[in-house]
Design a protein that fits this description.
heterodimer, A: 285 residues, mainly alpha, ABC transporter involved in vitamin B12 uptake, BtuC, two-stranded antiparallel ribbon, 11 helices, globular, B: 397 residues, alpha/beta, Rossmann fold, 2 domains, 4-stranded parallel beta sheet, 12 helices
């Protein structure tokens, strides 16, 4: 067995960082919803793919730059998130039941996507598709670099908002002790609607990133669930930076396993790492 | 026109009208099947749905089967083999269909085969990928892979490469662990070894892999003359995109079961090789049945929202399956499954993919897989030469 070269390892690690950033971006809204709203929103993945298809449609038919579609997608998906949260609270759905309800919603969105765009493959041929930078012996593809940039920027923006704004403090207080927060004047209902809107808008951004790098089919919604859930759990529920860090750890560990050993070992290594970190991290309950 | 001719013509018209009226007065023959109308296999199953609808329509226009019209009952197995099993059970026991047609994809076909065996029903199926698992005596494959494709298919590919101006000396085999491509890739390794090719890389990944970057980086480092990709569906495109991102173009490259349209339309797939049993060019299109089918398929597939409306492996295998079932019923002159099965085992069936026989191991006949290549944005058959598209030959980088 020959040892992999430094270039191979570095290129693979870079690939792991990029895919990890997408895990993190998809996990950001999911983790916030789970940790702060106590809604395990499986439909988050369906919303991301719906956004990817909307981006595809606007770019292919409307000839819009894929990044410009965010101007429409973000408010649209914010509104969808508000609507979903309104429905969940209207029927007082418990956290566990939210898993079932949003699974049902996922199936409905998947069927709607298939009805509108059929089950056939859809590939967004954007101006960014074939673009790449060369840094020494390494290649940096532009669509993946855009995803990384968006993931880092949004994770830090959410982290800063949660830490330094009254709104963020109110949301954290609600997650910690809702009755006490309400006693201090925090409007639980308005906060929940706002947060759900933000989480779904984040799914919309992740969807645009998916459309930039992947060929779309409706059933691919389910391909991301396992690994993104892992990133969210490893990163910490309600954490803004955690899913990104965890996503990159998972992505890089998978990529390096594929580079050194075999790609078929990647899930084993990354999930073993997940279990080990969950067991060994300080303060686990 | 003489009086005798006029009378003969009138009689013929009257007989045809009477036969049609008779067929319409009787209850239709009901053929039951499932297809993956939703779920991960839905994009290909849609092709089978369109083809089935075309065939049943054509069949009924010809007067149906045994003087009766034909009705196709198709249920959605959601790409789940366990659900396919339940639905086939339902088709036989509750819907009481007269005949069965296979579902799409190996897993579902295997499930349906078990049910068909329990009720002694004939099962003609379109695209079963692992012949060694087809143990039931009354299953009939439309996809003519031959009984030992793990050996014969790679040999066909390597024969084509050996005849090229620059035969490869080194090979990288990278493969999905999806069952119907994995055994082919393992077969390719064995065949390559026997033929003296030096294997510089062997990699496997789990179906559903999301990151092809490290696999691409390893291929680039190995620099094989020939890249065998055991890919199914979009995996081939995903690997090509990952290779392009690190600025690497494989010299000669083969993909087992690619998503046909995305690969042929991709500028990265220039000269990519794959296998076929039918493409839209002579000699396949010399058959009048295929010409009519192609015309209808173009119209219906476009209406169904299928982006690429060309007839290739999936559509052709699907049409072939219906041809086999029709031939079996007509040959047996009955809807009795045992009689149909016995007739099919003893006789050859002319189809748009060739003359098929079912007297080999697992009811497989010859391996009719041919090598095709992406040239100028479309698939063309390049090997064996007698099946090559007019003017086409194997192109190398």
């Amino acid at each position: 067995m020959t040892l992999p070269s430094a270039t191979l390892l570095a290129q693979s690690a870079l690939s792991g960082v990029f895919i990890g950033a997408l895990y993190g971006l998809l996990g950001l809204g999911l983790g916030l919803s789970w940790g702060l709203l106590h809604v395990i929103n499986l439909a988050h993945f369906a919303f991301a793919f719906l956004a990817a298809y909307v981006c595809y449609q606007l770019s292919t038919v409307g000839h819009l730059d894929p990044l410009l579609t965010l101007v429409l997608i973000v408010p649209l998906f914010f509104a969808l998130g508000v609507l979903v949260q309104w429905l969940l609270s209207r029927f007082a759905i418990s956290p566990l039941n939210s898993l079932l309800a949003t699974f049902g919603l996922t199936a409905i969105i998947e069927a709607a996507i298939q009805w509108i765009w059929t089950a056939d493959f859809r590939k967004l041929e954007s101006v960014y598709a074939g673009e790449k930078l060369r840094i020494g012996a390494l290649y940096v593809p532009i669509p993946e670099l855009l995803t990384l940039t968006l993931a880092v920027a949004l994770s830090f923006a959410v982290w800063a908002a949660m830490r330094y704004t009254d709104l963020g403090k109110a949301l954290r207080a609600l997650a910690e002790d809702a009755p006490m927060a309400a006693a201090f004047g925090v409007n639980r209902r308005a906060m929940s609607l706002l947060l759900s809107g933000v989480c779904t808008a984040l799914a919309g951004v992740a969807g645009v990133c998916l459309a930039l790098s992947f060929t779309l089919t409706p059933a691919q919604i389910y391909a991301w669930i396992g690994v993104v859930f892992a990133a969210v759990m490893l990163g910490g529920l309600g954490s803004a930076l955690g899913p990104l860090v965890a996503g990159v750890i998972i992505g890089v560990s998978e990529a390096l396993t594929a580079a050194i050993a075999s790609p078929s070992w990647s899930p084993i290594v990354s999930f073993t790492l997940l279990i080990a970190l969950l067991l060994l991290r300080p303060g686990r309950t | 026109m003489t009086l005798a001719r006029r009378i003969a013509r009138l009689l013929a018209v009257a007989l045809l009208a009477a036969a049609t009226a008779h067929a319409q007065n009787q209850s239709p023959i009901r053929i039951g099947s499932t297809l993956a109308l939703t779920g991960p296999l839905a994009q290909t199953a849609l092709v089978h749905k369109v083809v089935g609808e075309i065939y049943v329509e054509q069949l009924n226009k010809r007067g149906g089967l045994l003087g009766r019209q034909v009705e196709w009952i198709v249920k959605d197995d959601q790409s789940k083999p366990d659900l396919a099993r339940t639905l086939y059970e339902q088709l036989i026991t509750a819907d009481k269909v007269d005949l069965l047609m296979g579902p799409y994809a190996t897993g579902a076909i295997l499930s349906a085969m078990g049910v068909a065996q329990r009720y002694n029903k004939v099962l003609v199926h379109h695209t079963f990928g692992i012949p060694s698992l087809a143990k039931y005596d009354m299953q009939f494959p439309a996809w003519s892979l031959g009984p030992d494709p793990g050996n014969t298919v790679p040999n066909t590919v390597f024969d084509a490469l050996a005849a090229s101006p620059k035969p490869p000396k080194t090979i990288a085999v990278v493969t999905s662990k999806f069952p119907s491509v994995h055994f082919m890739s393992l077969g390719a390794r064995e065949v390559a070894k026997k033929r003296g090719l030096n294997e510089v890389l062997f990699l496997e990944w789990d179906f559903g892999n999301l990151d092809y970057g490290p696999i691409a980086a390893r291929i680039k480092e190995a620099k094989p003359d020939f890249l065998w990709v055991g890919a199914i569906g979009l995996e081939g495109n995903q690997l090509l995109e990952a290779l392009s991102k690190i600025d690497y173009t494989p010299q000669e490259h083969f993909y087992m079961y690619p998503a046909p349209a995305p690969m042929s339309k991709s500028p990265l797939a220039k000269n990519a090789l794959s296998m076929t049993i039918f493409e839209e060019h002579p000699p396949f299109t010399n058959n009048p049945a295929s010409a009519e089918f192609i015309k209808l398929y173009h119209e219906r597939a476009a209406k169904a929202g299928i982006a690429d409306t060309s007839v290739e492996v999936q559509a052709a295998a699907s049409y072939t399956a219906w041809q086999i079932l029709e031939a079996g019923v007509r040959g047996a002159g009955s809807l009795d499954d045992k009689a149909i099965g016995a007739w099919l085992k003893k006789n050859k069936v002319d189809t748009i993919t060739g003359r098929l026989h079912f007297d080999g191991p697992s009811n497989y006949g010859d391996d009719l897989m041919r090598v095709k290549q992406v040239q100028n944005g479309r698939w063309v058959t390049v090997w064996p030469k007698e099946y090559a598209a007019p003017g086409a030959s194997l192109a190398v980088q």
